[in-house]
Amino acid sequence: MGTQRYLLGKVVQLVITLFFVLTFTFFLFHYFMPGDPVRTFLKAAGAKYTPAQAEQLKHEFGLDQPIFPNQYVRFLKETATLHMGASTIIYPDSSVTSIFWSRVGKSLILITTSTIASIVIGVAMGIYGGWRRGGWVDNSSMSSSLVLYAMPEFVLGMILLLIFSRWLGWFPAGGYDGAPVTQYTGFAHFADVANHMALPWLTLMLAYLGEFYLLMRSSLLDVLGEEYITLARAKGVREKYVLRRHAVRNALLPTVTLIALSFGFILGGVITVEIVFSYPGVGLLSYQALRARDFPVLQATFLFAAVAVLIANLIADLTYAYLDPRVRSA
Amino acid sequence: MKTETEPLAPATTEAPVVLPKRLSPRSIRWARRRKAFVRFWNQFRRNKMGMFGLAILVFFFAMAIVSIFSDKGRLDPTITTNGPVLANPSWAYPFGTNLQGISVLSLVVEGSRISLFVGLTASLISMVVGSTIGIWAGYRSGISDVVLMRLTDVFLVLPWLALAIVLAAVFGQNMWVIIFIIGLTSWAGTSRLVRAQVLSVKERTYIERSRALGGSDWHVVTRHVLPNVMPVIFANTILTIAIAILSESALSFLGLGDPLRPSWGTTIEEAFNNGALTLGKWAWLLAPSLCIVLVVLAFTMVGFAMDEIVNPRIRER
Amino acid sequence: MSVLSVRDLRVTYSTKGGDVPAVRGVTFDIDKSEVLGLAGESGCGKSTIAGAVLRLHSPQTRIEGDITLDGKDVLELSPGKLRATRWTGASIVFQGALHALNPVQRIGNQIVEAITVHRMADEREAFVRAGALLEQVGLPPRRINDYPHELSGGQKQRVMIAMALACNPSLIIADEPTTALDVMVQAQVLKLLRSLQHDLGLAMLFITHDLSVLVEVSDKLAIMYAGKIVEEGPANEVFHSPVHPYTKALAAAFPEIGDQRFRKRPSGLGGDPPDPQLIPSGCPFHPRCAEVTAVCPELVPELWDAGVGRTAACVHANGAPTLEGVART
To answer: I need a surface site. Which of A88, A104, A228, C239 has the fewest CB within 10 A?
Structure first.
C-alpha cells in the first residue's frame, strides 16, 4: 500500500537522521572537546584522587579504549538505554537522566500547548485573512504579523514581562511555582503553575503566530487562483463550501510542510524564553550547561532537542499523508 | 477558463537595449544585464513595502558607516569620564546609560556595525554553500542528488540553537565562530529552494540546445543555469539575512557573543543579566531590541517585495 | 426561442493599470441542438465571454449588455437564483483538466457535489447517477473513487464532460476543452462531445483558438478579434471561403497535407494581437491586414452582410457601404 511505503520512507529518514545526529554528537564531544574529561570531572567533584584512581576512572568511562569503534559503540549503547553519564558541574554526580526527568515534563507541556495553539489560531486567521483580502482586518493582521515575525522571542518575552508582570503585576516574574516559599497541592498547585506558565506560554504562542498566519494566508491566495475553485463556483456551490471543501483542503498542504520546517526554530525560541522567565525546563538547563561547560548535560540536551524535533516532523509527515492522497499512491 | 486580468505585455513600450560603443559578446551581455537591472528596479520602485524597507536599511547602513569613524573611546568601560551609571533617558543620553555609564545610544550605533556585519557575512556563506549544493544536486541528478538532498534534509530538521550551543561550547566563542555556526545552520533552506529552481530551468530547451552544441557542464551552468537561478537566490538571500540577524541576537543573548565586539544582541544580554528588567531600565533593553526588529522587518519587506517581482505566481494574485 | 441570447455584451476588467475592455460589444444566439464555434487568438476575449454567461468574474469586473439564458436575464439574477441557474442552465467544460479538478477529492464526489448542490437527488442516488455519467463518457464506473492524479489527461477531460452533464443543462460551454491533449486523444474527445451534443440535443458554445477543430464540431462559426466578432456564418462556408482578412489568415495557417503552396511559402500572420488598452483606431485589424485600404484606419466597421446568413466586419464585404477605392469580394 502506498501509505505504508510513504510512512516507511519517513521512518527510515528519521532513523538515518538520528544516526547522523548521534555520530555527530559523539565525535564532537569526544574528539574536539578541549581538555581531559576525567580531569574536568575530578575538578568539578572537588575531591582529590590518586593517579591510580584516576586511571580506574578512565577505565570505567572507557576512555582508555580506541575512539572508534569501541568508544563509539559504547556511546550508542549507553544513549539508547538512557545512561548518559553524570553531570559534572551543575549537579555534580547526579545522573543526567535524573536531572532530565524533572525538567522534561515542564518543557514539553509549555512547548506542545503553545505551539498547537499558535498553529490553530494562526492558520484560522490566515484563512480568514486570505479569504477576505484587503480591508483593515487583513492589513492590520499583516502588519502585526510582520512585526511579530521580526521580533526575537526573548525580546517579546521581556516586553510581556515588563508590561504584565512589572507594571501591571498580573503575573509573577518567572519560575514554575511558588516553591519552596508556597507549598500548594492539588488544584491550588495547578493554578499556581498555570499562573507562572502564562507569560512564557503567551510569548511562545505569539512569537510564531505571525509566521503561521502569513504562511496560511499566502497559501490560500495561491490556491484561490486555481481553476477548480472557479469550477466549484460555476457548479453553484456556496462560497463558504468553496472555501472549506476546495480552497482550504488544498491550501493546508504546503502550509503543513512549511510549519514543520519551523519546529527547529520553535525549539530555539523555547530555550531563550525559558531563560527570560527562569522557567526550569530543558531549555534553561541547556543554557546553564553551556555556561558551566557541563558536557554530559550539554550532550543530553542536544540529543533531546534533536529527537523532539524529529518526532514533531514525523507527526507532521503523518498529517500530510492524511491530507494529500497523492503521496499515498506510490 | 483563465480570466484575462492583465493585458498582454506591451512589447512596444519598452526602451530597446542601448548598444555599447564597442561590440563584443561580453559588452553585449553587460548591456543586457544593465537593462534587466533597470527593469527590475523600475518594478521594485513601485512596491511601497519594498521601498519602505529599503529606506530603513539605508538608515541603518548609514549608522553602521558612522560607527566605523566614531570615537571608540566612548565605549571603553575603563574610562572614568563616562556618564552616570544606569541613567534614565535624557537629552544627553537619549536611551540612558549602562552599568559602566556608557551611553546606550553609542552602544546601539556601534552594535549596528557588528550585527549587520555578522548577518551579512553569515548569510553570504549560507548562500554560497546552499546554492552550490542546490545547483549540483539539481543539475547532476542521480546519486549526487539523492545524497546531497538527504544531507540537506538532515540539516533542515536539526534545531539550530541547540546545535549552536554545543558547537560554541566545544569551539569557543568569538565572532567568527558565530558566523560559521549561523552559516552552517541556514544553508539547507537555500539549497532546497535552489535545487527546485534548477530542476525547473533544466527542463527548458535552451539547456538541451547548449549541451547538444557541445557545451561543457561548467559552461551550461554558469552561462545558462546560473543567470536564471540568480533572481531567486538573491530574493532568498535577503530573507536569509533577516534570519541571520535574529540568530545572532539569540546567540549573543545566550552569552556567546564576542565581548570585544558589542552587537545589539550582546547589549540586550548585558542589560538582561544586569537586572535591567527588575530595575525598570527599559530603554537599555528596548533600544537595541527596536533596532533588531526594524532591521529584520526591513530585510523581510525588501525580500517579500523582491519575491513578488521574481515569482510570477505571486504577482498574478 | 434560442437557448442563449447575448446582446451587445461588454466586459471590462478593472486592474491596477486601468480599465481593460476585454469584450467590446458582442452579439450572438445559440439555439437548441446548435453548436456555435468561437475562435480567435489568445487575449481576444473569448474566454471572458464564457465566464460572463455564468457571472463568474470578480465583482470589480463591469459587465454590460444582455445575457438571456433559457429566457432568464442572467445579469439581473439574485445571488440565490444565480447559484441555482449555474450548472442547471449552463455548465462549463474547462480547459486543461490538469488543474480544473480538485486534487484532494475523489472524482465521484466532485460529480456528486454538482448534483446534491442543486438538490436533484440524495447522495446515494447521486452516486448512481455519477456512475451512469461516467459510462456515458466512456469511462468504467468503478473509477468513480479515483483521485484526479490517477487518471490520464484524456480521462480527466471525460470526467469534466460527465460533470458538465450532471444537471441536465440546456447549454454547454466548452472552453478550450482539447487544447492540452495529444492529437489522438483530442479526436476522441471531440467525437464524444459531438455525439453527446447530438444525442441530448444540447446547445453548445465551443471556444478555442484552433480553427481546424471548430470546423469539425460547429454548425455556426464566429471569429473574434480585439473583443469583437469580426465574422460570422455557417462553419463550412466561413472556413472555406472566408471574407474577413483575419479569417483568411487564420484559415490559411492550417495547411492540408500535400498542399504544395504551403510547403513553399508557409503563411502566418505577422505582428501581435493588440493590447486591449491600446486598440488601434478604425478597424482594429488594420495594422496587420494584408488587404488594408486607405479608409481602414478611420472607419470602425460593423458586421455587414457578406452572403447568405453571413456577416463580416470588413469594408471588403458585400454589404458594406460603397466607398472609394475599395474592392469587393
So the answer is: A104
